[in-house]
Design a protein that fits this description.
This protein is an alpha+beta fold. The chain has one domain. It has four helices and eight strands, in the order βββββαααβββα. The strands form two sheets. Strands 1, 2, 3, 4 and 5 form a five-stranded antiparallel β-sheet that branches. A three-stranded antiparallel β-sheet has the order 6-7-8, covered by helices on one side. The longest helix has 20 residues. The C terminus is likely disordered.
């Protein structure tokens, strides 16, 4: 779903463990680079729920204190708001900017932050946190405004169709007969 040269989602469903417990592989592809642990088996229901909320309930992902900062500087400000020595949960930075939950456990080693500055862009920033912290580098991509929401909506629709097409119930009821 999407355009891997801009932003796309790659996902693959596994056979369900039982009704309502769908797992699969998930990652983002941003400007040709895969982000997330494809080998991880993530809970698809949680991923879909996060994307449904993300698409349906937009939030303000910019504030004036970020004006004039580079993407990397803005990343550091918002990261420190949540995880720094002087973290302040009252700022609400985690819920507004940190979007790691988009892929559940496939993003355990990734900090993923989304900014939507004034204008027609989105800034997607990520840092893979594996190995020596001195080697962690913030990467970023400038996307068209709404690109992440658009690919998320496509993902939700595709997964919903795929799950429905199996005939396996998602709510613990008996399988449908066609």
């Amino acid at each position: 779903m999407g355009d891997p040269e801009v932003v796309a989602i790659e996902a693959e469903l596994e056979e369900p463990i039982d009704p309502g417990r769908w797992f699969g592989h998930f990652r983002l592809v941003v400007q040709g680079e895969g982000i997330g642990d494809w080998d991880d088996l993530a809970m698809v229901r949680g991923i879909v729920a996060w994307w449904e909320s993300f698409v349906a309930e937009p939030v303000e992902r910019w504030e004036h204190r970020l004006d004039g900062l580079s993407p990397e500087e803005a990343f550091d400000v918002v990261y420190d708001d949540v995880f720094g020595d002087d973290a302040d949960v009252t700022l609400g930075a985690f819920g507004r900017y940190h979007i790691n939950r988009l892929g559940m456990s496939a993003f355990d080693e990734v900090t993923l932050i989304l900014f939507e500055p004034p204008g027609d862009e989105q800034w997607l920033l990520w840092r893979v946190q594996r190995g020596d912290p001195e080697t962690w580098v913030v990467r970023h991509a400038v996307l068209p405004r709404g690109a992440l929401q658009k690919v998320g909506a496509e993902f939700v629709a595709a997964v919903s169709d795929a799950v429905r097409s199996t005939g396996i119930p998602t709510d613990g009821t008996e399988p449908r007969s066609e």
